[in-house]
Structure formats: C-alpha cells, structure tokens
Amino acid sequence: METKGYTQDGTVDLRGRPVLASKTGKWKACAFLVGYEAFERMAFYGIASNLVNYLTTQLHEDTVSSVRNVNNWSGSVWITPIIGAYIADTYLGRFWTFTVSSLIYVVGMILLTTTVSMKSLRPTCTDGICNKASTLQIVFFYTSLYTIAIGAGGTKPNISTFGADQFDDFNPQEKELKVSFFNWWMFSSFLGALVATLALVYIQENLGWGLGYGIPTVGLLFSLFVFYLGTPIYRHKVKKTKSPARDLIQVPITAFRNRKLQLPNHPCQLHEHEPQQYINSGKRFLDKAAVKDGNSSKPPCTVTQVEGTKLVLGMLLIWLVTLIPSTIWAQINTLFVKQGTTMDRSLGSSFQIPAASLGSFVTSSMLLSVPMYDRYFVPFMRQKTGNPRGITLLQRLGIGFVIQIAAIAIAYAVEVRRMHVIRVHHIMGPKETVPMSIFCLLPQYVLLGIADVFNAIGLLEFFYDQSPEDMQSLGTTFFTSGIGVGNFLNSFLVTVVDKITGGGNGKSWIGDNLNDSHLDYYYGFLLVISTLNLGAFLWASSKYVYKRETIEFNEGCIELESKALEISPLGLQV
C-alpha cells in the first residue's frame, strides 16, 4: 500500500484508517484539546482551592476534619486515573474513555452546583447558632464530589496523552514540536487555575456558591462541544497488545517460574515477536521470563513484555520519592488557606481578599515561568548540554524539589513570625485577626509555582516519555497517583499529628484555633522530611536507567546502540 504522506507511527482516524500527516494532528489538533484542559482545571481548582472554607463555614466541620476531607477528595481525584488509564489502554482507547468519563464529570458538577444552591441541602443557622449538617445533606454533597472524582479518573490520564499522540515521534519536525507540548499544555492548565483562584473564589464568597460552581459547569460543557469539533483531525494510537497492563503481573510470575533456567548468551535465543521494540536495561532476573523452555506447556513472555515491565519498575522507584513533594503541594489548598484566614486580608478600606485567592500567585508565577523556561532557559541550556530538552528530565525534577524545600522553609519562617505577633498582641480567640498582612505568605506561594514548572510538568513528561508505548495512559497515572497519594499522606499526617500532639492536655499543632496552635512545628516537620526525601531522590536518580531508543538489527537479532550514561554536576543521569 502507498504510505507516502501518512503518519509514520501508525496512527489512524476514529474509524481505524491511516491518516495523512499534513491534514491531522500537531498543534492544530491540540488547539481543540487545550480548551477542555483550561475549563476542567478551572472547575477543579474552583472547588479544591476553597473547599476547606466551604466545609468549615457552610457545613460547619472542624479544622482537622475539613483538611482531612479536602485531602481525601483531592487524593481520590488524582488516584482514580489509574482505573481510567487501565480501561483506556486495555479496552476502550483514550478517546472513548475520555468521552464517557467527561459526561460523568459534568453530571458531578451539575449535582454539586445544585447542592450548594438549594437551601434545603445546607445546614440552617438561627441567631448565629448553626446546626450540624444532616446525614442527607452530607451524603448528597459528598456524592456530588466523588462523582466528579470518578469522572476525573477517566479524563485526566487520557486527555494529555491523547494530546501527545498528535505528534509523530518518527517525524523529526513533529518530535521537536512535542518537546514544548507538555510545557504549553500545563500553561493552559495553569490559566484555568488562575481564573478559579482569582475570580471563582471571590464569586463563591461574595456572590454565592451556586454561581461560583455554575460558571465552570457551563464552561466545561462548552469546552466539550469544542473538543468534538476537532474529531476529524485527531490521530489515534493503535493498540499492539490486548492487555499491556497484564504484563506487569505476568512477567514477574513467569520469571520466577523460570528462575532455575540459564540465561542465553545472546538475545536472539530469547522469545520475541517484535524484536524492533527491544529496549536495553539492567534487571537481568526478569529476562528469565523470556527464556524458551521446551519442557513447559506455557509460552514464555516476549522480550517486549519483559522490557516494558523493567521500565515500569524503574519508574516506580522515582514515583516513590515524589510522594513527599506532593504532600507539600497539598498545603496550598488546606493549611495555607486556613493560615491566611487568621491574617489581615484587607485591601483598602472596604475590600477583603479571600484567603484562597492567594493560590492565584502559584498559577501566576507558573504562567510567567513557563514561557521563560521554554523560550529562554531550554535554548540556553541546549547550547551548553546538547540535550534537546536543555536538561534531563530527572535534573528538572531535582531543581523543582530544591525550590519546593525553599518554599516550605519560608512558610515555616513566616509562621514563626505570625506566632510571635500573636504573643506580642495577646491574641487568643479563633476569630481574632492577627495584625500581619496576608501578603507575607506571598513568597511561599510564588516559589511553589516556580517549583511546579520544574517538577509538575517534568513529572508529567517523564512518566509519559519513559512508559512503554502501549502503557502511556497508565504510565501517566504515575504522575496523577503520586499527587493523590501525597494528598492521602497529608491527610494521614494531619490526623496523626493532631491526635499525638493534642492528646491529654497537650496543645495540638493543628487545632481549630490556629491562633493557639503550633502550625510552625508542623511546617518544620515537613521541612525535615522534605530535605531527607531530596537525598532519597538523588540516590534513586543515580540508579535510574533511561528508556533507550536507538536500535540496529543484525541477522534478525537485536542489538542496541546507546551512549554511555554521563553524570551531571547534580549527580543525576544525563
């Protein structure tokens, strides 16, 4: 068949027909996708950034419960993509998984908007005394939230990978365009978050929660309409295995079964259907899963399956050392917000800044930093290192983690200062305002935004780039699940720290009255574990072996040609 003009990576249209490279994909296709990402992030951060205030002021939950519930919901939003990615990679594909899940997401947003709009679904207050939320009110509210979490499970891992699929890795020009894709993809995400933390938070607290949730719901519906307009020019990856995720279980089991067999001296003697996909790495024990055993009735795994499993195990090590940084990130929508509510939020004589709006400085610093990173930092470093990305993916993560440690160190110092002001002015009441401007919190927000340009975007790109080709949706969930587990971990830490420090007659570090607590101790604790985690990250990076791409064939056998790993000044592999 004549293949001239078609994509070289085998992508097809929605009907399974080969697509022309000139008429499909690239940024013209991604233009239909970024709108959804912006509106979805606006919806998510419109909820997440101010949810702790809704729970305490509208449902009348205590501080620890509200922080725990926010973390648990956020964690669910970020961890359910594991299920969505598995369904996409194994059964439905990215496009159809996204289609079904986006409808569930919209239903959840409609339910939530209805819940916060109807008085019968909120607790009532009489003469300043508010009732606790009834069981029905709690069930309806959290059902709405977790419906959104289920929908996000199918949209989050698939929309970004579907966007990356629009670039042909076998076309040098398109591959160069793809280098910038994740930077600008996250730029649209940050833009949605900025609108949420600036405009929606203000609308929620001053014009009504129903309007504050209704606006992103309408925006989400509009973005879906735009998304489907681009259907004729989308490229779709063809699945090469029936269940790629099943290999993660099958390979170790087969390797263990063949543990007594000797490994052959040449890879030609290993079992393989598609030798061009062979990837070189360490972990020799797993190679035994591909050893041909004439005495066994069960077929061995292919080399492709084995090498894919090695890649995933290598990424797992990096994933583990991203959990603490994700815990630090979880403070933005929880304790940072509660900390801000105690401070002087006045701007002029009559305007008060919503505490959650300071989250806009995280996204503002991201929006300013992404173009600078992409247009100046990358070309400058590319000249120095010869790396198309400027620096390696792991170096990018390491820089982000260092900046994040600086941010939590500043948060600790600011909280120490706030506690000093409280003592000087003899402030004790939970609703008394500390005479200290909320803008003192600005540096920690800005630094976390800059850090995210390195580690959030870097993680998304790392897990997509390093995943086996048939598991890229599932691979991307390493990024989302890390954030999810980080939220659960923060929920766990907050609960345990509160019980330990508040037991007996002790003063809880994270009490309902933050003016009579020791939040500075908790921030100090986070600073210590973040520093220790950085050491663990440097060790894990030194052990990691990048995915290889350069391949040659010799008499039908596989030989890999790859440069020796160089060690950078940071101690990370190039």
UniProtKB/TrEMBL annotation:
The chain crosses the membrane at residues 95-112, 181-203, 209-230, 311-332, 352-373, 393-414, 434-464, 476-497, 521-540. One of its GO terms (molecular function) is tripeptide transmembrane transporter activity. Belongs to the major facilitator superfamily. Proton-dependent oligopeptide transporter (POT/PTR) (TC 2.A.17) family. It comes from Gossypium tomentosum. It is found in: Membrane. One of its GO terms (cellular component) is membrane. This is Major facilitator superfamily (MFS) profile domain-containing protein. The keyword Zinc does not apply. The keyword Transmembrane helix applies.
